[in-house]
Write a structure and sequence with these properties.
This protein is of the alpha/beta class and 116 residues long. It has helices at 29-41, 59-74, 86-94, 107-115; strands at 5-10, 15-24, 46-57, 78-82, 102-104. 41% of the residues lie in helices and 31% in strands. Strands 1-2-3-4-5 form a 5-stranded mixed sheet, with helices on both faces.
Amino acid sequence: MGPAAFEGQSIDESVELLSVSGELDMSNSSELRRRVERAVREGRDRVVIDLDRLEHMDSSGLAALIDGHQLTEARGGRLALVITSESVRRTVEVRGLDRLFRIVASVDEAVAAVTD
């Protein structure tokens, strides 16, 4: 496992796709927060966070996801997570956060979830 790597892509004027790979933990979760904040500040309040290549996430990573959700919701937007890893899904479910987030299996499904 390696440190998290982040990639951002504007899908359109209202949707931002953020991809996270590696390990999302205390050493880098603030970068995820910054990227969500920047997207919302620039008018993209529909955010998809693709965790397909995420190998590990600790509680600070979960907190960054919650912060992103709260920020987008406060602006009238939406946030969806792409989770295909059973271990990452379990990390989210054990804490009951699967009831908070829209969790889907592909980027296309996530874009549809935030734009419907």
